[in-house]
Design goal:
There is one protein chain. With about 80 residues, this protein is an alpha+beta fold. It is about 20% helix and about 40% strand. It is built from 2 helices and 4 strands; from the N terminus they run H-H-E-E-E-E. The chain has a 4-stranded antiparallel β-sheet. The chain starts with a helix and ends in a 16-residue tail after the last strand. The relative contact order is 0.19.
Length: about 80
């Protein structure tokens, strides 16, 4: 599945696809939000949860770049 094909799915089908076919990679917790990263074919899906309400806030897709930086354990240069 390409990123374009994924984005053409309905919202419900996108969530079903990422949770059933996506490979879990990592979780980062920042404040009240939990960022959960999945790999799906040749792109990434980030699902953002509200920790207090235990519900999904939003999701985003990307191929690479700054969005992956929060999942790196490498310290940022000053």
């Amino acid at each position: 599945m390409t990123l374009y094909e994924y984005k053409m799915l309905s919202e419900d089908a996108q969530y079903d696809t990422v949770f059933s076919k996506g490979k879990f990679l990592d979780i980062v917790i920042e404040g009240n939000s939990k960022f959960v990263l999945y790999a799906l074919d040749m792109f990434f899906v980030e699902v953002v949860w509200d920790n207090e309400k235990d519900e999904i806030i939003c999701k985003g897709t990307f191929n690479d770049g700054d969005s992956l930086n929060k999942y790196s354990n490498v310290p940022k240069e000053i």
